[in-house]
Amino acid sequence: MNANPFDGTYAQNTKNRPTVRRWGSTACATPYLFTEMYSYTPGGLATKKWLIASNGSSQSFQLETSQTYDNEGKALTVKFPDSFTATGSTYNYTYDELARPVKLVEDYTVSGQIYHRTWVDTMRIAQTTSGL
Predict the structure, then answer these.
(1) Cα–Cα distance list, 29 to 5, 25, 26, 51 (Å)
(2) Same domain flag for 38 and 89
(3) 66, 82, 103: which is the final residue of a domain?
(4) SS3 of 129, please?
(5) SS3 sequence of 37-68
């Protein structure tokens, strides 16, 4: 059963897990109401988090992040929220046969141009290649 009272289509696999948190108020000196919503894999790993902030009038913003995992629960991708001016970065993880992270690739967009940045753990790759 989906226990999210604000958006019944957002949260998945929510059994005994938080689905939504709300705090703040549009009636106080700093009039913002914050709502966080969560979605999960069947095994309980967070797949999405959505933050909505509004001040009770037409001003509001939304941030959403998402993650994917392999069948062992290791993170494969992490997508950071988009902002008003830029697309959020996506990080892609690669692991060796012993489940150690060996490569991280960041994909990001600036002014419509897609860029890729790669980090490689050369010491670990050297050890794996040499059989150590």
Answers:
(1) 27, 9, 8, 21
(2) no
(3) 66
(4) helix
(5) EEEECCCCCEEEEEEEEECCCCCEEEEEEEEE
Residue tagged 């959505």 (tokens): 50
- Closest C-alpha among 88, 43, 49 to residue 69: 43
**Residue 100 belongs to what domain range?**
70-132
Q: Are residues 2 and 53 in the same domain?
A: yes
Residue 57 in tokens: 């009038």
pLDDT on residue 91: 93
Verify that 42 and 74 share a domain, yes or no. Answer: no
pLDDT tens-place string over residues 36-87: 999 999 889 999 999 988 887 777 888 999 999 999 999 999 999 988 777 8
- Among the ranges given (78-87, 91-100, 111-120), the one the predictor scored with the smallest mean pLDDT: 111-120
